[in-house]
Automatic annotation (TrEMBL):
Highest taxon, organism lineage: Bacteria
Protein source organism: Croceitalea rosinachiae
Signal peptide range in chain numbering: none
Family membership: Belongs to the short-chain dehydrogenases/reductases (SDR) family.
Name of the protein this chain belongs to: SDR family oxidoreductase
PROSITE patterns found in the cross-reference section: ADH_SHORT
NCBIfam families in UniProt: PRK06181.1
Length: 264
């Protein structure tokens, strides 16, 4: 039997890309889903394209409204009576050199990619502790394990997620809490299009590395396997995944290889 069947899974960033594909694949597995992102009408569309729309609820939210995190969690729990797995997937990327980036852009990226996830995760923690069970799945990035030019704020925020959630795992394993850090390489979504540039406007164009990345279908299939296995940390992508191991043992080599690859 599928271990995820009938689990209540809350996915943030479910309106597009990885989050949308997760909704489709998890619905096929008969999970009960709560889909969150900012735009209600887009979430409705994703819901209606799921295999089992009657088991899909939508909860529109802006992840940077930290003060509403407790009420979002209360609503999420009420929708099916509990939440088993929270998939923290909402995020925004960056394409700008440090010298050209307004400080406000760093704040926005940190708010969305780090603090928003911390707020929602912290708000649901009492529920997980009460149930003596709960699984945080956090969509970080290979950029949470090593860095690359044009993404300084994004790399900072994704690295920070590892710091927070590794501590979460240690503090709450005794309460049945699990943490899976998912680090994608290049996945073919619109992440580059919605990436912030130095003045905070969107890049509005795709880049070839992302477009040539894994399909969301292939990526989410692997991600779901990692969730089922309750992996601590997983790297999913093409040859760029090797960067994690090269950084660990040969940091100067990784530095040279990233500069040589000239991925913008
Ligand atoms: N695509 C890649 O190559 C890649 C690589 C590494 C990591 N990731 C990570 O995967 C996750 C999903 O990205 P994607 O590739 O599907 O891109 P995407 O742009 O298609 O999806 C991002 C999602 O986050 C949501 N979001 C953004 N800001 C939000 C906010 N303030 N409140 C609520 N929701 C918000 C968007 O609406 C969207 O649903 C992100 O965390 C991203 O950093 C993607």
């Amino acid at each position: 039997m599928d271990k995820l069947k009938d689990k209540v899974i809350w996915v943030t960033g479910a309106s597009s890309g990885i989050g949308k594909e997760l909704a489709y694949q998890l619905s096929k597995r008969n999970c009960k889903l709560i889909l969150s992102a900012r735009r209600k009408e887009v979430l409705e569309k994703v819901k209606n394209q799921c295999s089992n729309p009657k088991d899909v609820k939508i909860l529109p939210l802006d992840i940077i409204e930290f003060e509403k995190a407790d009420s979002y969690v209360e609503i999420a729990i009420d929708l099916f009576g509990k939440v088993d797995i929270q998939i923290n997937n909402a995020g925004v990327s960056q394409r700008s050199l440090i010298a050209e980036t307004d400080f406000s852009v760093y704040k926005t990226i940190m708010d969305i990619d780090y603090l928003g996830t911390v707020a929602l995760s912290k708000a649901i923690l009492p529920h997980f502790m009460l149930n003596n069970a709960g699984h945080y799945v956090v969509v970080s990035s290979l950029m949470g394990k090593f860095s690359s030019p044009y993404r300084s704020g994004y790399c900072g925020a994704k690295h920070a997620l590892h710091g927070f959630f590794d501590a979460m795992r240690m503090e709450h394993e005794k309460h049945g809490v699990r943490v899976t850090m998912v680090c994608p390489g290049f996945v073919n979504t619109n992440i580059a299009k919605s990436a912030l540039t130095g003045d905070g406007t969107l890049q509005e164009s795709n880049d070839s590395a992302t477009q040539n990345g894994l399909s969301t279908t292939n990526f989410c299939n692997k991600m779901i396997t990692a969730i089922k296995k309750e992996k601590f940390e997983v790297y999913i992508g093409g040859k760029e995944v090797k960067g994690v191991f090269i950084k660990r043992f040969f940091p100067k080599l990784l530095h040279k290889l990233v500069l040589k690859s000239q991925v913008r």
